[in-house]
Amino acid sequence: MRKLTYYVAMTLDGFIAAADGSFDFFPLEGDHIEAIFREYPDTLPGVGREMLGIDPPNVNFDTVLMGRATYEVPGGGPSPYPHLRQFVVSSTLTGTPDDVEVIADDVLGRVRALKAEDGLGIWLCGGGKLAAALLPEIDELVLKVNPIVLGAGIPLFDGAFPAARFVLDGARVFETGVAWTTYRNSAA
To answer: Staple partner for 127: which of 18, 67, 156, 180, CB 3.0–4.6 Å?
Structure first.
């Protein structure tokens, strides 16, 4: 059974993006970025890989799951992660490239079916509403907590959801002040 991992950057006050969906306040330099390149190269978008002239292998994920707002992030492309199998959850989105599949209904059922397939893990890239809807299926949280207080924005989990208990699986702090905490779902 594959794991669904919510791997996401967030602020100290629990936001994954500003209210308009932007996230340019997160630092893009430092030792935590080096760790991303080394440990989570599969989460680098295609345009970033192209600009850097790199094509590292997927080591954690072979599938990415995004909400519509995450998929349509300003400056993003029509196929943001061409090195992964891409899914966008939306009941209204049409006209995606062939390598981006839209999930319009029964999201939980579809995610359960994806988890039952063979392969690497599934990366829940965002957003907060989708994370809240999928909370019962999230096996692991990898939170990149940045030393920023935003005050308002899109929360880590946005909407009503049942309580869930997670167990700390690891933590480390980088010189940049970014702290990575990994939790596993205690029910998984």
So the answer is: 67
